[in-house]
Fold each of these.
Amino acid sequence: MKNSRHSDDNMSVRRRRLCEVCNSRFTTLEELLLKPIMVLKKDGRMEPFDKQKLLTSIMLATNKRPVTPAQINMVLSKILYKFESVKEDVIPARVIGEIVKNNLLVLDKVAYIRFVSVYMDFSDADDFCSLVEKIKEGSDK
């Protein structure tokens, strides 16, 4: 191994290696394996946590916003790290939604509004207006 460095989020390690047989150089990326987490849905069902589903929802919320892939990955890593620090193997979907909400509010307010509108099942324009007013007042709850 030539060198090794942690990613910015400390969730992966990039290693530069050298083949001792042919002297070729190559890079490996080692990612942290998450403990198995189950998600408790609001209807009582349980399903395995799906990292790709979480990433998709974040990407939809940030679509066409001035948010870089690196920022999206950082938010995803923060969320996954939060899950790793929880001692429970079952996390309610509501808790996951709140964690995503809080991270998106810091990242991009429009992405936050998009996510919350789906998460809270907004039914009309008044719901959006109310949320925007809360953001303007500094109260995101």
Amino acid sequence: MFDTKMPLNINDTDMNLTSSEIHEHYGHTEMTFTLIRCEAWSCAASLSNKRTLQPFQSSDGTEQQERAFYALSLHLQDEYLRSCQPIATPMAKLLVMMAPLIIAKLRLVAFYPGYHGITRYNAALPPADKDSLFKSAIDLLEFERLLEDDCDLNGWRWFFANTHIQWHAMSFALSELCVRVVGDTEHAAWEVIDRVFPSISLQPSASEDHVWGPLQDLKQKALCYRFSSASAFTPSEFDNSMFEGLVSDWNL
């Protein structure tokens, strides 16, 4: 049980040597970026302490997690994000983009292990939830590109790309691409992965990280499935450019 209070929602200018009492603001401040992350991980820690942030221990546990994530989403909206509209600053834009992705990340971490059947009750992840998590994983991976392409936000890319590599999102997306029927959604997912995956390998810690090797193997497995699925199409039905990409991918 944590008894440390959340940081105040204030700006640096609210503090000085003569301050005897500091009143926090409503809406977004220079501290809001950190506060949203603190709120999210406080929620995760609370669920973990209740032994529910684990894969499908029971249907009650799953529902409790969903309620917690929904409550967190409403809290972030009411406490911080409502004042970001209309978006007038780069920070407001970043917060509006980041908050739903944090919820998606929490759901992915909570529910992804159940997809592998590593659960006491052997509960299966429903197809609708699987599709939702797949989209969330792709959105998380694409966030880096959005930061890079947006001149207002690319100054934040170092934080998300270099210190917060989305291992869970990449792992889940590749796992799904090993079994999903090839369609427009899957092609779009591959476009995102092909852009993001090389940048992960360039990170200083990537070669030493214990998940990097298995992640490469998982990508090759997904590529095998993609290639075998593609062979079922006639040449006129399939874009040959995909096969050109496969050659370089196998040399990773």
Amino acid sequence: MGHRYSMLSKMWIVIPYAIFALAYGIYNREFPGLDPINATVYVVAGLLLIPSYIQAPRTYALAEIRRYGASEMPVFSRNYTYKRVGSSLTWAGVGEKSFRIEFSASEQGTKNCQEVLKVMKSKPWIIWLQPGVWLAVSIAILVLNIFLDNPVSSLFASMGSGTEIATLRIIVFYMPCVLALVCPILSFIFVVVRDNILYKCAEKLANEIEADLTARAGSPMKCYRNVCPNCGVVSTSSLKCCNNCGTSLEVLDSTMGLGTLRYYRDDD
């Protein structure tokens, strides 16, 4: 245990020195393609990805749905509201863009998966990229910036000197860090766009659930016997016909004892 703590303490000592050495090297331009300005931009780009990473777990299920067509996880909004339509598992807020879509709840979950997958396929794929992808793109830009600095510098050196060449060189030198900065901005914009799309999808699914509940509530009730009038077999499940002789268990005489009846709607 003590050995582990000593290792951790050494790491906390090494990390500040490593950061200082890296910053010192960048300040003295010891790393190709990096100076204090663009290095700062790269750091800011990394920090700006944090809000997107915080929101990412809410929509992890989307990657599973796209890959496998199913997910055990739901998708949900940042906000929660009690004023909503739908069921306890799949709902949409009323007057507020909050939502929850469940994918693991039997028939409704399968239907939700199909609907969300349909929506995902109808929208540009770039909208559904997770923050990790944008981080990878930013790192790739940084690596290219470092490795392509010498060839690009040699190219500009062969082009001669002059104000226009110098201006173009500055633009080319700082363009990669600007592109890296765009990545977290796009990532957060797409978080908002995804939420709006998913809310509309949840609203549609929730309204369908409400319509189904309303239809069920308006359909007439029918009564069924627990004991078959023909063979006397006891029905232990929600059967409308006897599983022994096939006789209908529907009750047409309302004078039978209530204890012998089961009630179901026409569409059950």
